[in-house]
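ping. complex inputs:
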Amino acid sequence: MTTLKNDLLLRALKGEKVQRPPVWMMRQAGRYLPDYIKLRKKYDFFTRVQTPELACEITLQPIDQVGVDAAIIFSDILVIPQAMGMEVLMEEGRGPLLPKTISTQQDIDALHIDDIEDRLSYVTKALSLTKQELNGRVPLIGFAGAPWTLLCYMVEGKGSKSFDKAKQFCFTTPAFAHSLLQKITDATIHYLIAQVKAGADVIQVFDSWSGMLSPADFKIFALPYLTQIADAVSPHAPVILFPKGSWYALPDLCNTSASGLGIDWSITPQMAREFTNNSITLQGNFDPSRLLAPISEIKKSVREMIDAFGVDRYIANLGHGILPNVPVDHARAFVDAVKEYEPAPNYTTV
Amino acid sequence: MTTLKNDLLLRALKGEKVQRPPVWMMRQAGRYLPDYIKLRKKYDFFTRVQTPELACEITLQPIDQVGVDAAIIFSDILVIPQAMGMEVLMEEGRGPLLPKTISTQQDIDALHIDDIEDRLSYVTKALSLTKQELNGRVPLIGFAGAPWTLLCYMVEGKGSKSFDKAKQFCFTTPAFAHSLLQKITDATIHYLIAQVKAGADVIQVFDSWSGMLSPADFKIFALPYLTQIADAVSPHAPVILFPKGSWYALPDLCNTSASGLGIDWSITPQMAREFTNNSITLQGNFDPSRLLAPISEIKKSVREMIDAFGVDRYIANLGHGILPNVPVDHARAFVDAVKEYEPAPNYTTV
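pong. complex structure:
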């Protein structure tokens, strides 16, 4: 095994003292990068995802071009429903579409989970190749969608402002919902452990739609499955849970086996530290739209953000994925501001 | 002036003791009601909004058919940008579209505000007519969009997942943003006071997109303008502020002149009471998707919600607008459950 030359991310997740926080950006591979846009013109979405050489190339672009402290494998959360047997259509500029949605126990029973690692071997191959190409420069992050978020797409069939079809399914047939959530959880655990074996140093679980749930419903439909995944995967690699919009869940989530929690920009660093009792590494939470501000403003806001979170137990990141219209030099300014960070003279660890 | 036969809403906003909380539903006039859908087939959106007889008829439908404790005038938050001189297109089933957006100080200077009450006289006429037709059965609620939310549409031109164009405008040209926000605020204050003079007993201000702002940005781009509106309108009628998604703003907002704060379902009643130091009437916060659950479940959840908020200083409502696909008898079950509410034997006021 190659020793990591830059292990800031791993040290932050362990809670070790660091000179400065590590920095990466959600969706850093893709969208706003001109070299990615060139590849997008040549290969369709699933070709890019399913060809290990292409996924590797895209994963490496921001390491070389923006200078982040971690790589995250280029892939998609919907590869799991697809590997379970559902058709997933992905048109450029539109959201995903799953033409045949789940509504009955029979639909759930028809989903495959036994051979999930084989069906997703293109991801593990991409990870191995990327790990080799990185040659220890920075850690490699693997990921999956959280069971609740995948249920949203599998039942609703597409993005939605309210996901009311998915919620109606949960509220009217909770036994089916739990059967589906458990099946997704089992598949996800196998998939994530396979990712670690293939070279992922850290795992992030994206619960992109958890914020649609009330605190009471989060405890029923999201928390138990996130907990199972963190418990099963954390013996293999540190796990970061990112429950977008679910600030209310931080007290519960900091008691799981996760090493880090991602947060969006709707909470102050101070409140996030308070809700997690200062006991876990936090990741976030720069408003992605703020990368459209002038560079001097970006750098100032980044410094204020680190001042507020503190240097230790902290991973600088956005509060959600980078927007497609962010200029590359603004993304670089975000990363540079973290790298240039010097604690204020009156700085004390939170 | 007619005395109100049902003044539960006003008493709840004053913090007076009540036998049970008042109940109404955001977007109760429209969408899910078959009689509304019939009118929608005959008249386009702005004909419905701008014809006082139609707006009145639509406003009264849920009073007779669902039994809510308040009427809210049928209108739209975008009537203000429209009255200020912007073109607003509203196609059924799609969101609003404002073809010419605001981007310069010149665009802002071109907006009219002097004769706003005249330009919106169709709303005040609809309120007078509805007030007369209600004949004191229940209070009448007038409303407007909050300045930040209106800026979002005026700058972005349409709905958006991130409103990054609106945010970029604020982050790169804050002086223009404040100039626009102040102009909207001035227009809104005139408009809302005119609504009260025409018969509105209560005013609600919808900040539908405030949750897109970080707590720090909320203090800059939303709070000062909400505060101005609450200060100016509250001498005329009680004001309810509804900053959707901005749970973090509750401590600041409970120190404004508002009589009530609307909350969505992403916060527990207990936390909302804690954040507002038990000092203000709260309104909400049933997940609108829960109205798709079986009726017995709806009734049970409503009882639990009232148990958690307490009977006093509370207005039962949804946490956002009712969904178009909610069966009328489910909406009625929500209202009935509040009306049938009996405190648990061990009930104590929070």
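The first helix of chain A runs from residue 8 to 14.
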